[in-house]
Design brief:
Elements lengths: L5 H13 L10 H10 L6 E3 L11 H10 L8 E5 L4 H9 L4 E4 L4 H12 L2
Parallel strand pairs: 1-2, 2-3
Helix pairs in contact: 2-3
């Protein structure tokens, strides 16, 4: 999960852990890119768009890095963001996002999306 809002990240870790997921969280672009470059791909990526760490870079850049990485290219990615314009959604889907959830969201909606994308 890549989320810069610490409170939301902590909440998602708890909720996802309760559903049996092992959750690793990154709070900025630098940490997230390091994980993409060094770790095995996860079963799912929850990705915010607006992220600190690298000026001029955002979650779309991270999504592109994920899709370029041979080991990560097929990892399902759900964009979880407050960027809710049609242009942003289309940009994410064209870049390879598997789904898009808007903040604020209901946990049931996000979990249903995760189930659909992961196939559980």
């Amino acid at each position: 999960m890549v989320e810069d809002d610490e409170e939301l990240a902590e909440l998602l870790v708890v909720l996802l852990s309760e559903k049996g997921f092992t959750v690793h969280a990154a709070g900025n672009m630098n940490d997230a890119l390091a994980v993409v470059q060094t770790a095995m791909a996860p079963d799912l990526v929850l990705l915010d768009i607006v992220l600190p760490g690298l000026p001029g870079k955002d979650g779309f850049d991270l999504l592109a890095a994920i899709r370029r990485n041979e080991g990560w290219a097929k990892a399902p990615v759900v964009m979880v963001t407050s960027e809710v314009s049609d242009d942003q959604v289309m940009k994410g889907l064209k870049a390879g996002a598997d789904a898009y959830i808007f903040k604020p969201f209901k946990w049931e909606t996000l979990y249903s999306c995760i189930q659909s994308v992961v196939g559980i």
